Structures are given as C-alpha cells and as structure tokens.
C-alpha cells in the first residue's frame, strides 16, 4: 500500500512545507552548520526580587509575598465588605486566618524539616482598598489557552459581585496594549457569556514588554490593581512591572494569574486549560487510531503542543491507551540502529499491524537541527521557534519503510496543535478559573502584591513571582509518571545511564537514600542499557 501523509489545516501550506522539508532531509549537499543566531536582547528592566522569608519551628519556612504596606506603611485598612455580603456572611470561617500557609511539599518523613510554605489565598478580615477607590485592569499575554475568557469574566464579576468594584478595564493585545492601545471598559454585562468562547476577548501578543511605558500607563490612568494573565514569560514581565511600581511608590497591586497550556509553570499543581487541552487531544489521537487501524501497517502520527515540557503528550497518552509511542522534549530519542525508534516501529507494526505515535512539538529538536543543519530562530518574546518534528518524523518513517521490501505502510499525520488551545475551557477548568480569579481578587483587596496565585497541593496560595519564574516545570523522566507511560506504551525508553544521571541533576528535592525492601525494589533490576542498545525500562510490563 502507498504511504500517505494527511496534514491538518491549512492543508496547501502544510503540504508544501512537508514537501520542502522532505526534500531538505534527503538532500545530501547540506550547507555547513551556521553559528546559532544570538537571542534578541529583551527590552525589559531586570527585576531584583526581594525575598520575604520567615522561619518557624521544625524547619518551617514561609516564602511570603510583598504587601503594599512594605513600602507604604501608613496605608489605612477597612473591614472586608464580604462580612455583610448576603451570600458570604453566613459562611462559617469564610475568612482565612492571618497566618494560614500552604506546604509546598506534603509527603514528609518522620523527623524531616517542615520546609517551604506559601501564604494561603483567600479573603482577609481587613482590606486595603475601598470598593469605589479601585480601578482595576486586566491583560492577557503570550499564547492562547482554554479558560482565558473565564478568568477575565470571573475577575470582572468577582470584583463587582463580591467587593462592589465597578471600574475595570481591559488592556487589549497583551503588554504593548498598555501604551499602544486604548482600554476597553469591562462590566459584568459585557463579559457575560465570554466563558463559552475560546481565545481571549482582550487579544494577546508576544514581545513589546516595555516596563517603563507600561508603568507610565498604569500611573497615568490611575490603575491600582493590575491582573496579568500569562505564562512564564508574562510572569517575568509582571515581576519587572511590580518592581517598577514599588520603586515609584504607587499604591497598585500587581497580581499574576498563571496561564500555560504546556503546564510548564513550576510549583503550581497544574495550569488552567490543561485538562481541556488533554481532553481535546484525545479526539486527535482517536482519529489517528481509527485511521491506523483501518489500513495495512497503518501509522498515525499526532503532534501536540509542548515547547519544553511534554505534559500534554504524556497525559493524553496515559488517558488514551491507544498510543504506542510518546515522544516528549525531556526524553531524548534516536531513530536508527538497535533499540531505535524505527526498529521499534517495525516491531510494533509486525505485531499489531498498526501503531499510533504522539509527539510533543518540542521533542527531538536537537536531532532535527543536527540533521537539517538549521540555525536557531526566536519569536518576539525570545522563545525558540521550533522545527516541525511531526513532519520530520513522518518523512523519516516513510523513507525507512520505502527502503524495505514487502513492507508498505500507510501513514497519516494529524496536527491539531492550535485546535487544542483554541477551544473553550471544559467544566472542570471553568470552575478552576473561577476560583483562581476569586483568589487573585481577595489577595489584591487585602493589599498583597507581586504574587502569582495558584493551587499548591490542592490549596490556593500566593506565590512570589521569583518562585514561579526561576525554573520551568518539566516532566521528570526518572519519576513514576513517565514510567507509567513507558509501561502503558511498552516503548523503548531510549535513555543511556548518562541521560538518567543528567535528568536526576534537576531534581529539586534531595533523593532519600534507597532502603532495600522499603523504598526500593528488593532486587534492583538491570535498569537501563547503554544508548544504542536502547533496552526499555518497562518493556514487557503490562
Ligand atoms: N524575561 C522577561 N522579562 C520581561 N518580560 C518578558 C520576559 N519574557 C517574556 N516577557 C514578555 O511576556 C509576554 C509573554 O511572553 P511569552 O510570549 O514568552 O509567553 P508566555 O507568557 O511565556 O506564555 P506561553 O509561553 O504559555 O505562551 C511578552 O509580551 C514578552 O515580551
Ligand atoms: O504560535 P504561537 O502563538 O507563538 O504559540 C506557539 C506556542 O505557544 C504554546 O502554546 C504555549 O507556550 C506552545 O505550546 C507553542 O509552542
Ligand atoms: Mg512561555
């Protein structure tokens, strides 16, 4: 049977790109590998994070967030209007205790230190803004993510319904909208129903982060609460805005709401929209499976988002159970030779007659760059522009089987990357977004600033910006979750002992020494073979 490639919209452009890529791959006269282009210098003021740490008994550490009174000591406070709110006044213990904190690590050992804690999110007895004094602004930055509109809606409605705030504006088109665009008035009426739509009603962008101009705009417009919804880059920008607001002595709370479809923000449990994205990815995987099953030696390849972190691919694989091979940025792989991807594909096709491959867009970038000898390119925010691993992989697989006698394959490529992030959020993400927005509002009203709000071990917490931005959240390939994936797909793990050691170096928590029969297997199995040998960690397991 003839091998075929199906690429999702826009079909003509993608088809042309696929052909061009295939031609490049097969071209042996490659130009010399050029020096990587220098990353464009970010036009931002570097934030100097001032850590607010407090110690306690038993190795307890509170990594606290800034408060407006840190630099405006004489700010008056007022009773929280929620005390008289018909809905909330009947709730027993509605206000959180002043010293409630949330533990970062909840699995502890007898005698281990209590460790890092964050300030618990929620309404306080006293607030530092009168409702009619608040002038709030909301901005969305970076890529799209299901749930952006829900967060916007709940910020507007929450400010209005809980605290009686009526002055809320939207900043259009991301950070640059602060100084390049007019604001748009947001009312409960104007945002009603937007949670049923994908995208962001405010628009978004990358680049254009000019801290000086943004804070000028905040100051000129008299904005005193800024809600900044965005990913790791956005939160770094928010940190610089907060630093500048504080330097100018403005009474303005700067609040980050973490958004990332890739789930690459550290510390937090998961990001909003992630659930929806995984659910949507199932539809593409199902389609790939149906196509693959219906053809002789059918191969379905699905590319999912995940620039540096392969969480969507990992969870979509685990949820689907139809996937034979999951490739993520954190786990290097190789194609040729014993234990390589092509050998595995051949084996799986001989056994099952079809296979499904899920590949995160950031997987295998080094391998592709080497084979194509391409230079690095970056987007307006300084993020690396990725090479299309999906098209590359399809070309390699097709090429491999073309050379095999009596082994025709039918390959279908599905690229739903933008489809999974453009959909509206599902029910559980909608609830999550609402709580997130409410926690953000309570924090700002209580005078906290310079923080990101998110669940940590199931409890909402206020986390200092530096904690969120110092490191990206990545799939730990030496962790149980990735082992579960390997066990479910029975794919090779491709790792050398060196790779495993390197992966272990990033582990944040010290590894507890293994005690045979307690926290380790009684008899350690031969874990991994050398690269090139490629024996799977979980091959043969159920
Ligand atoms: N180090 C930084 N300091 C200040 N601003 C930054 C920094 N990195 C990125 N930004 C700004 O933050 C905004 C969003 O950044 P970026 O495009 O990287 O998306 P993101 O917030 O990381 O979201 P995602 O990656 O999930 O799409 C851009 O306007 C960008 O200029
Ligand atoms: O094409 P855009 O809008 O720059 O976004 C693509 C990137 O945005 C994300 O969705 C979020 O960072 C990544 O998964 C993806 O690489
Ligand atoms: Mg990012």
TrEMBL record:
<feature type="binding site">
    <location>
        <position position="143"/>
    </location>
    <ligand>
        <name>ATP</name>
    </ligand>
</feature>
<dbReference type="GO" id="GO:0006002">
    <property type="term" value="P:fructose 6-phosphate metabolic process"/>
</dbReference>
<protein>
    <recommendedName>
        <fullName>ATP-dependent 6-phosphofructokinase</fullName>
        <ecNumber>2.7.1.11</ecNumber>
    </recommendedName>
</protein>
<keyword id="KW-0460">Magnesium</keyword>
<keyword id="KW-0963">Cytoplasm</keyword>
<comment type="pathway">
    <text>Carbohydrate degradation; glycolysis; D-glyceraldehyde 3-phosphate and glycerone phosphate from D-glucose: step 3/4.</text>
</comment>
<comment type="subunit">
    <text>Homotetramer.</text>
</comment>
<keyword id="KW-0067">ATP-binding</keyword>
<feature type="binding site">
    <location>
        <position position="232"/>
    </location>
    <ligand>
        <name>Mg(2+)</name>
    </ligand>
</feature>
<keyword id="KW-0808">Transferase</keyword>
<dbReference type="InterPro" id="IPR022953">
    <property type="entry name" value="ATP_PFK"/>
</dbReference>
<dbReference type="GO" id="GO:0005524">
    <property type="term" value="F:ATP binding"/>
</dbReference>
<dbReference type="GO" id="GO:0003872">
    <property type="term" value="F:6-phosphofructokinase activity"/>
</dbReference>
<keyword id="KW-0547">Nucleotide-binding</keyword>
<feature type="active site" description="Proton acceptor">
    <location>
        <position position="262"/>
    </location>
</feature>
<feature type="binding site">
    <location>
        <begin position="418"/>
        <end position="421"/>
    </location>
    <ligand>
        <name>substrate</name>
    </ligand>
</feature>
<feature type="binding site">
    <location>
        <begin position="305"/>
        <end position="307"/>
    </location>
    <ligand>
        <name>substrate</name>
    </ligand>
</feature>
<feature type="site" description="Important for substrate specificity; cannot use PPi as phosphoryl donor">
    <location>
        <position position="233"/>
    </location>
</feature>
<dbReference type="InterPro" id="IPR012004">
    <property type="entry name" value="PyroP-dep_PFK_TP0108"/>
</dbReference>
<feature type="binding site">
    <location>
        <begin position="231"/>
        <end position="234"/>
    </location>
    <ligand>
        <name>ATP</name>
    </ligand>
</feature>
<dbReference type="GO" id="GO:0046872">
    <property type="term" value="F:metal ion binding"/>
</dbReference>
<feature type="binding site">
    <location>
        <begin position="260"/>
        <end position="262"/>
    </location>
    <ligand>
        <name>substrate</name>
    </ligand>
</feature>
<dbReference type="Pfam" id="PF00365">
    <property type="entry name" value="PFK"/>
</dbReference>
<keyword id="KW-0418">Kinase</keyword>
<comment type="similarity">
    <text>Belongs to the phosphofructokinase type A (PFKA) family. PPi-dependent PFK group II subfamily. Atypical ATP-dependent clade 'X' sub-subfamily.</text>
</comment>
<feature type="domain" description="Phosphofructokinase">
    <location>
        <begin position="136"/>
        <end position="442"/>
    </location>
</feature>
<feature type="binding site">
    <location>
        <position position="361"/>
    </location>
    <ligand>
        <name>substrate</name>
    </ligand>
</feature>
<keyword id="KW-0324">Glycolysis</keyword>
<dbReference type="InterPro" id="IPR000023">
    <property type="entry name" value="Phosphofructokinase_dom"/>
</dbReference>
<dbReference type="InterPro" id="IPR035966">
    <property type="entry name" value="PKF_sf"/>
</dbReference>
<comment type="function">
    <text>Catalyzes the phosphorylation of D-fructose 6-phosphate to fructose 1,6-bisphosphate by ATP, the first committing step of glycolysis.</text>
</comment>
<keyword id="KW-0021">Allosteric enzyme</keyword>
<dbReference type="GO" id="GO:0005829">
    <property type="term" value="C:cytosol"/>
</dbReference>
<dbReference type="InterPro" id="IPR050929">
    <property type="entry name" value="PFKA"/>
</dbReference>
<keyword id="KW-0479">Metal-binding</keyword>
<feature type="binding site">
    <location>
        <begin position="206"/>
        <end position="207"/>
    </location>
    <ligand>
        <name>ATP</name>
    </ligand>
</feature>
């Amino acid at each position: 049977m003839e091998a075929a490639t199906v690429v999702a919209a826009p079909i003509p452009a993608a088809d042309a790109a696929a052909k061009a890529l295939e031609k490049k791959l097969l071209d042996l006269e490659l130009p010399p590998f050029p020096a990587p282009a220098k990353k464009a210098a970010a036009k931002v003021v570097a934030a100097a994070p001032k850590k607010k740490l407090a110690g306690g008994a038993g190795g307890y550490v509170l990594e606290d967030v800034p408060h407006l009174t840190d630099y405006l000591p004489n700010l008056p406070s007022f009773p929280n209007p929620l005390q008289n709110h018909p809905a909330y006044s009947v709730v027993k213990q509605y206000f959180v205790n002043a010293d409630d904190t949330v533990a970062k690590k909840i699995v502890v050992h007898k005698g281990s230190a209590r460790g890092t804690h964050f300030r618990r999110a929620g309404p306080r007895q006293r607030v530092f803004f009168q409702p009619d004094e608040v002038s709030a602004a909301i901005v969305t930055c970076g890529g799209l993510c299901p749930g952006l509109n829900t967060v916007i809606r709940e910020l507007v409605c929450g400010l209005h319904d809980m605290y009686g705030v009526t002055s809320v504006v939207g900043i259009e088109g991301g950070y640059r909208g602060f100084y390049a665009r007019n604001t748009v008035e947001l009312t409960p009426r104007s945002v009603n129903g937007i949670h049923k739509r994908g995208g962001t009603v405010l628009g978004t962008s990358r680049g254009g982060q000019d801290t000086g101009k943004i804070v000028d705009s905040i100051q000129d417009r008299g904005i005193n609460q800024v809600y900044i919804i965005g990913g790791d880059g956005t939160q770094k920008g928010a940190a610089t805005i907060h630093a500048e607001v504080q330097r100018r002595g403005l009474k303005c709370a700067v609040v980050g709401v973490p958004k990332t479809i890739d789930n690459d923000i550290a510390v937090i449990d998961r990001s909003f929209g992630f659930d929806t994205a995984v659910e949507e990815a199932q539809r593409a995987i199902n389609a790939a499976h149906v196509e693959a099953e219906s053809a002789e030696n059918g191969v379905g390849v699905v590319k999912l988002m995940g620039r540096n972190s392969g969480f969507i691919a990992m969870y979509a694989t685990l949820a689907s159970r139809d996937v034979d091979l999951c490739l993520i940025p954190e786990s290097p792989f190789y194609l040729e030779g014993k234990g390589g991807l092509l050998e595995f594909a051949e084996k799986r096709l001989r056994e099952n007659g079809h296979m499904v491959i899920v590949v995160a867009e950031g997987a295998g970038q080094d391998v592709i760059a080497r084979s194509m000898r391409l230079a690095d390119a970056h987007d307006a925010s300084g993020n690396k522009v990725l090479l299309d691993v999906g098209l590359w992989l399809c070309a390699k697989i097709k090429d491999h089987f073309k050379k095999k006698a009596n082994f025709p394959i039918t390959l279908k490529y599905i690229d739903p990357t933008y489809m999974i992030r453009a959909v509206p959020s599902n029910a559980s993400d909608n609830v999550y977004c609402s709580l997130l927005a409410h926690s953000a509002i309570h924090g700002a009203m209580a005078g906290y600033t310079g923080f990101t709000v998110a669940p940590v071990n199931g409890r909402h917490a206020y986390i200092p910006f530096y904690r969120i931005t110092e490191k990206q959240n990545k799939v730990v390939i030496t962790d149980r979750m990735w082992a579960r994936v390997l066990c479910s797909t029975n794919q090779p793990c491709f790792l050398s002992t060196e790779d495993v050691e390197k992966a272990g170096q990033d582990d944040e928590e010290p590894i507890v020494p293994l005690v045979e029969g307690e926290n380790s297997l009684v008899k350690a199995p031969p874990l991994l073979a050398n690269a090139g040998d490629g024996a799977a960690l979980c091959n043969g397991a159920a």
